Amino acid sequence: MVLLLPLLLLQGPTWCTAAQRCPRICVCDNSRQRVACRHQNVTEVPDTIPELTQRLDLQGNMLKVIPPAAFQALPHLTHLDLRRCQVELVAEGAFRGLGRLLLLNLASNRLSTLPQEALDGLGSLQRLELEGNLLEELRPGTFGALGALATLNLAHNALVYLPAMVFQGLLQVHWLQLSHNALSVLAPEALAGLPALRRLSLHHNELQALPGPALSQAQGLARLQLGHNPLTYVGEEDGLVLPSLRELLLDHGALQALGPRAFAHCPRLRTLDLRGNQWSAWLLGTWRGCVALRWLYLSGNRITQVSPGALGPAQELEKLHLDRNQLREVPTRALEGLPALVELQLSGNPLRALHDGAFQPVARSLQLLFLNGSSLEQVSPGAFAGLGPGLQSLHLQENQLQALPALPALTGLGLIDLSGNPFRCDCQLLPLHRWVPLSWTPSAETFTAP
Ligand SMILES: *[C@@H]1O[C@H](CO)[C@@H](O)[C@H](O)[C@H]1NC(C)=O
Ligand SMILES: *[C@@H]1O[C@H](CO)[C@@H](O)[C@H](O)[C@H]1NC(C)=O
């Protein structure tokens, strides 16, 4: 206000009336800096919006077309919300004069194309929402004027192809959202000219092969979401070279195989999500090069066995999820070389029995162990050998256990779930009954009468 005072004095009464009157169909705050004219079916930007308005919310109207310089009379705008306004066309220069705009929301409209100069004049814009439109193609140069943009959301459109240099000029973009489109091809230079890109969302598209060359253009990428694409194979030849990548999400695809050294050039990778694929064969050395891996999710694949040495050495691996696969036994030897493993998920495998020393290689570090829903009928007396006070929770529910040995070494257990087992209430269960803390009373489902 201090800055505006001289302006105010100069403009005198004209400015005062304009600033004080709130258009009939709008709601304004006391200072007239926030104006909301939502769901009023207006077909044009109302011409009586106070000139000093900073935040203008027009969502849910029927603008259809944004003509050139539509907001020229509102040079102080920082936030402009045009969601759900049935916009089909943004004319060239539509936002001219909005040099202070930080956020432009054009989500949920009907844009099928963006003219070359539609976004000109938005030199301060930090966030552009174009989610939920009908965009089928983007032309190089479309975003060239958005030198300050940090987030670009193009999710839920109809994009099938990204041409080379399409994002040129977006020198500050951190997060590019391209999920829920129909992308099947990315030109090798499609992601060139995005030096600040850290996060790229490409999930829910039609990619059948990893666009390695395009992705490798984004050398600063830390998080890459590629889930829900019909990818069948990833190998070193796909050329994924991402020295800064920390999180790679390849879940819910159609992966049947991973080449040896598929992730050989991602030395900082901490999280690798491969859930819900169709992976069955385990190749030795797949993880070589993933020296920083901490969380590895392989749930819901078709893995039948994990060969010794396939996982390790992984000095920092903390979480290993192998639940809902086809493992017929605990892959004990494959757990060697994982000195930091804290959480092991093996539930939903047809394990049937736990043999002696099944968890010995990771017994020192393990805290959470999931063996529920694994058709377990038999647990050898030494099955949990090596595990001690470090183990905090043990899930054995939904199995076929009739008896369980006492586990006196597990003094640190905060949770043991034994529900959904047909335990026989006879002498065989006595050691367990003595061992389980007094406070624990079996529920009706836990025990079924012999
Ligand atoms: C906008 O148009 C719809 C459909 O014609 C109507 O139901 C609604 O009452 C209108 N809203 C206003 C504020 O005029
Ligand atoms: C195992 O138990 C955990 C915790 O209750 C649960 O989240 C998970 O879905 C269960 N897994 C299976 C395969 O039933």
From TrEMBL:
Protein name: Chondroadherin like
Domain LRRNT: 21-55
Keyword Transferase: no
InterPro entries: Dev_Immune_Receptor, Leu-rich_rpt, Leu-rich_rpt_typical-subtyp, LRR_dom_sf, LRRNT
GO cellular component terms attached to this protein's record: extracellular matrix; extracellular space
Upper classification of the organism: Eukaryota, Metazoa, Chordata, Craniata, Vertebrata
Transmembrane segments: none
Gene3D superfamilies, alphabetized: Ribonuclease Inhibitor
